[in-house]
Amino acid sequence: MRKTRCILIAAVLLAAASAGAASQTARDGRYPATTGTIPPPAAGTQPAAQEWSGESGASGHPLMTAEAIRAAAANFRGCIERIWPLAARRGITRNLFQAYTAQLSPDLRIMDLLDNQPEFTKSFWDYLDLLVNDARIASGRALLEKYRATFDAVEKAYGVDRYTVTAIWGVETNYGAIGGERPVIRSTATLACVGRRQNYFREEFLSALEILQRGDVRPDRLVGSWAGAFGPTQFMPTAFKRYAVDFDHDGRRDVVDSVPDFIASTANNLRKDGWVAGQTWGYEVVVPATLDFRLADHAHMLPIRDWERHGITRPGGKPFPRPDDHAFLLVPAGVQGPGFLMLANFRAIMKYNPAEAYALAIGHLADRLRGAPPFVQHWPRYEHVLSRNERLELQQLLARHGYDVGEPDGQLGAKTRAAIRDFQTKIGQVPDGFASAVVLERLRK
Ligand code: CA
User: Fold this and answer.
1) Rg of the Cα trace of the chain?
2) How far does residue 260's CA lie from ligand 1's centre (Å)?
3) Which of 129, 287, 381, 389 is deepest in the core (most CB within 10 A)?
């Protein structure tokens, strides 16, 4: 699961204001050494800028009630100590473990953020407006020019398009400007011991300790989003383990302060997740209202020429350059908005962060950086976008109608969309799977 990368985006969308220092490169060896002096803990004792609301999480998960959060926080020390044997098995020294955990307190503000992931609470169009704009395009183009030689070398080594890597850099942290200031150790320790995703985050916490043990990233620079993603392209600790490379050959995989390292590591990540060299992510398409929208499903890959038989075209009638490529159809705003045919590279981007809006923002920003124009078709901006509570209610009502929507969490994924389509068919609407206010209204009856 890589969903946690959107913490940064959360910071952008929720706080709308964020301070962050641009990377300051420092190269004086490995920190901390596996043996020897251990620097003072980077994590821990400073209170978060904003305190926990004290309220139960919106997910309704039993581990996210205010009582459960308080109880887990009270047991935080014991929880951390129970993790120690697992750390020891990975070669973490007791000294290092002590240095980074002895003063640690949970950052409970993270519990508010855990249940409030904005890819799923903003409309697609608001999200795209925010992330793909003239300022971000101009900054990205300047960086492409500045690091041209690095991008040349990385493209050669990994076969991953420079514009996509730059778009990830731009969308994740506005090119390093807003990477987040939370110590990764504290964030992942908190999430490993409190809240609804402890198993997942125990692994992240252990992996963060391993990064410190090896000295790849300076301890005071191992800061980032509330979920523990760090560096300009927001690696989670486990993703760091899988994908980080030492492209500048200084002995450290420094995805925070070395531009060659994080550009190459991000490219390596995409390549290992299935990036196909020389191809794009997908195409904006025009979808006929008569389409069977059940075809718009991630699992439904068809050759583009088959989509053409279903009446799918590119705006302006431009031909598809590679009609034999397989693609799935995404129609994020239903029949009233643009459609997209998504190729293998879109899936690779979604592995970076499994939110459709995120992946589309990456693909679109990459195209804009390359010089392509904005999308042609309009979004249904007049549509009321369901609030988080309304989305939760929608899922709960669908479940009550007998649909499997998974654990209702206010995040509208493939299962919810399928349920909406089926319900729309029953009430005589175009079954496009769009969670409109009208659908919610009918479910309430
Ligand atoms: Ca390096």
Assistant:
1) 22
2) 8
3) 287
Here the tokens at position 416 are 């919810």
Looking only at the bridges linking them, the beta strands covering 282-285 and 339-342 are antiparallel
Give residues with Cβ within 8 angstroms of 234, minimum separation 6.
5, 7, 8, 172, 173, 179, 224, 225
For ligand 1, the distance from its centroid to the CA atom of residue 126, given in whole angstroms, is: 37
Q: Average pLDDT over the chain, rounded to whole?
A: 88
Q: Which residues surround the ion ligand 1 when the cut-off is CB under 5 Å?
A: 246, 248, 250, 252, 254, 258, 261
Q: 249 alpha carbon to ligand 1 midpoint, in Å? A: 5
Q: What residues have CB less than 8 Å from 268, skipping those under 6 apart? A: 158, 160, 243, 244, 245
pLDDT tens sequence across 91-149: 999 999 999 999 999 999 999 999 875 545 678 899 899 999 999 999 999 999 999 99
CB 365 within 8 A of CB 133: no
CA 248–ligand 1 middle distance (angstroms): 5
